[in-house]
Amino acid sequence: xxxxxxxxxxxxxxxxxxxxxxxxxxxxxxxxxxxxxxxxxxxxxxxxxxxxxxxxxxxxxxxxxxxxxxxxxxxxxxxxxxxxxxxxxxxxxxxxxxxxxxxxxxxxxxxxxxxxxxxxxxxxxxxxxxxxxxxxxxxxxxxxxxxxxxxxxxxxxxxxxxxxxxxxxxxxxxxxxxxxxxxxxxxxxxxxxxxxxxxxxxxxxxxxxxxxxxxxxxxxxxxxxxxxxxxxxxxxxxxxxxxxxxxxxxxxxxxxxxxxxxxxxxxxxxxxxxxxxxxxxxxxxxxxxxxx
Length: 292
Ligand SMILES: Nc1ncnc2c1ncn2[C@@H]1O[C@H](COP(=O)(O)OP(=O)(O)O)[C@@H](O)[C@H]1O
Ligand SMILES: [Mg+2]
Fold this sequence. Notes:
Strand order of the largest sheet: 6-7-8-3-9-10
CATH class of the largest domain: Alpha Beta
CATH superfamily of the largest domain: P-loop containing nucleotide triphosphate hydrolases
CATH architecture of the largest domain: 3-Layer(aba) Sandwich
Number of domains: 2
Number of strands: 14
Number of helices: 10
Largest sheet: 6 strands, mixed
Radius of gyration: 22 Å
Order of helices and strands: EEEHEEHEHHEHEHEEHEHEEHEH
Low-confidence stretches: 286-292
Bound molecules: adenosine-5'-diphosphate, magnesium ion
C-alpha cells in the first residue's frame, strides 16, 4: 500500500473511553483515493469515535490511523492539511462578514435557508481544498428535499474534484446511494465491508416477511424446504426470510402446509437493513421517513 493508492487507512483502531466504554473494538479499513466510503450503523455503534480517530480529535487507545501514509495521532497538523470534517452537529459560526456575503448570494440566487446551511457547512469544509472530506451523519435532521440537495452537491463535488469521502450514516438508503463501499459497524466492530451491491447480492433477491402464530415452526418449515438457516430471522411474531430458490408464494405455502397461521405477508426487495439484520440479528432501527 502506498500513499497514492491508499489515502486513508484505519489499522486495528481501538477506543475505550473512561468507564471501560469499548466504543471501537478493532476497526480496520483502507479507503482508496477518490472513493466514497461509508460507515453504516445505529446510534452508539462507534462511527463518530472512528471519525474522531481519523481526524485527530480522538486519541486511539491502540491501533493507527493514517492519511496519505501520515500517522494522524503523531502528526495531526499535517493530516489536517489534507482533510476536512463536517461534524455531526453541524455548526457554522456566528455571523461574519464572509457569511453575510454568502447569505446575500443565497438570497440573490434564491437559495432557501435550510439548503444554504447545508451548502455552507460543505463550503467551509472545502476552503482548505482537502483531499479527504469526512462527513459525520451529514443529513441528520434535514428534510427530504435538503437531503437530496446535499446528495447532489456531494455528487458534483466528487465529479469535479475527485475528493475522497468518508461518511457515517444510519440511513441505509444514503449509504446505498452515496457510497462505493460500506462498512457495516456493529458495536464497535466491522461486521461486513463491501460495495452496497455486493452486500445485497450476498442475500436473496426477495425478502419475505410473514406474521405468524408460530414463528419458530415457520422457520423450521422453511429450513425443511431448503431455505438456509442464516437466511431466516425471527423477531417476535415476524419471520423474515431471504429467498433465493423458493418463490415468495411457494414459501408461504410451505409455512401454511405446516399448519401455521399466516396473518400477514409482505414481499419486498432486499435492503442494507436486511444485510445488517442477518449479520447482527438486529435492525438498524432507523429508516428514512420519506415525505411528500
Ligand atoms: N467522550 C465519550 N466518553 C465516554 N463515552 C463515549 C464518548 N463518546 C462516545 N461515547 C460512547 O461510545 C459509544 C460509541 O459512540 P459514538 O462513536 O458516538 O457512536 P455513533 O457515532 O456510531 O453513534 C457509545 O456507547 C457512546 O455513548
Ligand atoms: Mg455519531
